[in-house]
Amino acid sequence: MSDADNILLEARNISVVRGDREILKNADLTLKSGQIVTLIGPNGAGKTTLVRVVLGLMDASGGHIQRSKKLRIGYMPQKLHIEPSLPLSVDRFLDLTGCEASEKIANLRLTGVEHLRSSPMQLLSGGETQRVLLARALLKNPQLLVLDEPVQGVDIAGQAALYQLISRIRDERQCGVLMVSHDLHLVMASTDTVVCLNQHVCCHGHPEKVSADPAYLELFGQAANASVAVYTHHHDHSHDDVCEHGDHHA
Amino acid sequence: MPDFIILALLAGFGVALVAGPLGSFAVWRRMAYFGDTLAHSALLGVAFGLLLSINLNLAVVLVCLGLALILVVLQQNRVIATDTLLGILSHSTLALGLVCVSLFGDQRVDLMAYLFGDLLSATVNDVITIYVVTGFVLVVLIKLWRPLLAITVHEELARVEGIPVAAVRTTLMLLMALVIAIAMKVVGVLLITALLIIPAAASRRLTHTPEQMAMVASVLGCLAVAGGMAASFFMDTPAGPSVVLSASVLFILTLVKKQPV
């Protein structure tokens, strides 16, 4: 397969303006099958906004998006709140997609929560909820998985396990994955490309490269990298000229 | 049993049947205040019906449908917080309805019947109207059951999975408007929401799936109608409020049972 063939989605110059605030500014994003792309950035960097634009839940104010024909997307939202008044088991939660029972069970087994099938959704722990959401996102064999903070509410050991599971799913299904994360070092081992976002794309590329990138360090501070390397080069980071297009080291 | 009791029971059962599933959605989606607003606007429908000399049921349905659509638009534009918006519309339409009925109506208009229901005067035509509407609403609810549940659980997830969320949500509101128009006969505009919410809330404690909850709510609604009618027959209490009170008693009885999750 040539490079152009396995492109699932290509977003160019995406801008989003709300009121007089520019939430996203000329952000580019390319998603390919078999590849894991992780969006990182501080709070308010526009990560979730970019994800919503990719999903088609929100219109961009500028730029354009090209999706491959009949792109099947599996989505794992950041938060799931189910009213206590709604009696809903894990089984029934997955049934809402209209999937086959065999596929449902296979996915719950894959994400390790098959034993919770008859549990009410409201009783699940944070980690269990994420795994159930992942199982639902995997229904109907999506070509692209979009996971908004997939390890939210999961303890550190569980986070590593969940990231491993996500890369295994990518290996097995050869789907594209777009993830949102707060912490580069936790996702490092399980991502192919990191896109560092702060309204615009500050830098992107392999995780090791990004973690040493001045733009990344500027955004997250030296402390974020203390466990990896001591980086001494102080680099002035201005959003307007240093890395407008975000590919200066790609 | 006198005919009017049989007709009243039939009318009440018809409304209770459809109020079960629809009321469950009202509980799950926290639409109680929304239901109140639509119900209060029903009186405005009565006033228009009297003014234009058209069928009152039709006038009520039209006004409720119109208000439901206005609410959909206003909610999307987020002009003000939803509960504030509903508070304004709910009581403004009720006040406007009261004023208009007194302006356009004549001595024949029994305001109390519209406010608190007039179950005992149900006619054969009323009963037929109720069952036609109930049948229609139940068929639509069954057809749209899965998408309705999906948008109730998570709208954006449902949208990514290909469900036309806005259309499904609007349909639910329109169904609500239809049911309010027929429920007005049973309990009156002031108590309609109670008939939707209370049996569903009582049913929650007894059930483990959404479908069970909807069906048990219908059964509890019918029990409440029967209980209210009995009270009305033997103790000469007003029928509508008696129906609502028996629903409340059923709800209190379910509190004895521990809440299943």
SSE arrangement:
The complex is a heterodimer of chains A (250) and B (261).
Chain A: E1 7-18, E2 21-32, E3 36-40, H1 47-55, E4 62-67, E5 73-76, H2 90-95, H3 101-110, H4 126-137, E6 144-148, H5 156-173, E7 176-181, H6 184-187, E8 193-198, E9 200-205, H7 207-211, H8 214-220
Parallel strand pairs in A: 3-7, 3-8, 5-6, 6-7
Antiparallel strand pairs in A: 1-2, 1-4, 8-9
Helix pairs in contact in A: 3-4
Chain B: H1 3-28, H2 32-52, H3 56-77, H4 82-104, H5 111-116, H6 124-143, H7 145-153, H8 155-160, H9 165-187, H10 192-204, H11 210-235, H12 239-254
Number of helices of chain A: 8
How many beta-strand segments of chain B? Answer: 0
The CATH C-level class name of chain B? Mainly Alpha
SS element count, helices of chain B: 12
Highest CATH level, the class of the domain at 1-72 and 144-156 and 174-250 in chain A: Alpha Beta
* Fourth CATH level, the homologous superfamily of chain B: ABC transporter involved in vitamin B12 uptake, BtuC
Shape of chain B: globular
Distance between the termini of chain B: 42 Å
Please describe what this structure looks like.
The complex is a heterodimer of chains A (250) and B (261). With 250 residues, chain A is an alpha/beta fold. Chain A has a domain at 1-72 and 144-156 and 174-250: 3-Layer(aba) Sandwich (Rossmann fold), CATH 3.40.50. Chain A has eight helices and nine strands. In chain A, the strands form two sheets. In chain A, strands 5-6-7-3-8-9 form a six-stranded mixed sheet, sandwiched between helices. In chain A, strands 2-1-4 form a three-stranded antiparallel sheet, with helices on one face. Chain A is globular, with a radius of gyration of 19 Å. The two termini of chain A are 22 Å apart. Chain B has 261 residues and is mostly helical. Chain B has a single domain, classed as ABC transporter involved in vitamin B12 uptake, BtuC. The model of chain B has no long low-confidence stretch (mean pLDDT 90). Chain A binds chain B through residues 52, 55-57, 73, 75, 77, 80, 82-89, 92-93, 95-98, 120, 122-123, 136, 146, and chain B through 27-30, 146, 149-150, 152-154, 156-161, 201, 204, 207-210, 212-213, 260-261.
